[in-house]
Amino acid sequence: MINRLARRCRDHLFSLLANAVRHASRVGDPVPQLLLQSEYRMLAQSGGPLPRFDDVGFKVYSQSDEDGILLFLFSVIGTVGKTCVEVCAENGIECNTANLIINHGWHGLLVDGNEKAVAAGREFYRTLPETYVFPPRFACSWVTRGNVNELIAGNGFSGEVDLLSLDLDGVDYWIWEAITVVHPRVVVVEYQDILGPDRAWTVPYSDDFSAGRYPTTDGLPNFCGASLRAFIKLADRKGYRLAGVNRYGYNAFFVRNGLADALIPAVEAKECFNHPKVVSGMRERFPLVKDLPWVEV
Fold first, then answer.
1. Which tens digit of pLDDT belongs to each residue from 112-134?
2. Residues 246, 251, 252, CA angle at the centre, nearest 5°?
3. pLDDT in tens, 243-271
4. What is the CA 182 to chain-centroid distance, rounded?
5. In the CATH scheme, what architecture does the domain 59-296 have?
6. What is the residue-wise DSSP string for the chain?
7. Is the pTM higher than 0.70?
8. What whole-number distance in Å separates Cα of residue 264 and Cα of residue 255?
């Protein structure tokens, strides 16, 4: 009982610290993040126990709490070159790699097919005090499984990188399956949570797939991406394990096997479908697309 109470107090403390980090970072002060990173590293070196995913997340530039989760993961497993690749990053300002690039000195490749978004991103990082000396590289391209490796390598990224992030709202499963030119330590993918924890489904592959051609709910695409189970099966083939998901249950974090396996163990898919947003999506949105041509993998 004493151990459970100590763990609960520690998790609450980390949650409070994460909130303080989020506020400080949004006003341009990365120092609290660096302090939190140091605390995580010391805990990892001592053998833990480490805080839970639920207690480490915070938002600085990411959509939800991905910034805090990534800070936690890389504090524990370390980095090799502080390099990242994000596919479908839009303007690169609200995405999974921005905080690492701006506040932690990472170098990244940010890919998107929207010319205006890419131009805005280039201007943002070109003038930002933290990145103007060496801004991230942008590439404007429609991404297919036939061009993705050439696109990444052609922009100077190959071999081991620290982070790969995919958010295509479409053929994400097929793109990750096709990527061989980089060997990331952590992979973040957006999955289709309305499919639940058991179905290993993805949309069929097409170079010109567009989720906008199919039913949406309040602007949210329903026939797109792949289920968490499908990504877990792909990750297993590629040598990764599911470490957890973001607060709202749509971004999954996979860590390469052999990196802090004991400290960051694999979690079960069924543990990732408890948020009310996810529960309502499975109940209300899935019936709209259950009979569309999903592919079981």
1. 999 999 999 999 999 999 999 99
2. 90
3. 999 999 999 999 999 999 999 999 999 99
4. 16
5. 3-Layer(aba) Sandwich (3.40)
6. -HHHHHHHHHHHHHHHHHHHHHHHHHTT--HHHHHHHHHHHHHHHTT-PPPPGGGT---SSSSSSHHHHHHHHHHHH--SS-EEEEES-TTSSSSSSHHHHHHH--EEEEEES-HHHHHHHHHHHHH-TTTTTSPPEEEE----TTTHHHHHHHTT--EEEEEEEE--SSSHHHHHHH--SEEEEEEEEE--GGGTTT--EEPPP-TT--GGGS-EETTEESS-SB-HHHHHHHHHHHTEEEEEE-TTS-EEEEEETTSSTTTS----GGGG--SHHHHHHHHHTHHHHTTS--EE-
7. yes
8. 8
The structure tokens 């052609």 sit at 154
d(CA 57, CA 65): 4
Q: Tokens at residue 263, please? A: 């400290």
Structure tokens at 269: 């898919």
Domain boundaries, the chain: 1-58, 59-296
Two tokens, residue 50: 């480490």
pLDDT at 7 over 90: no
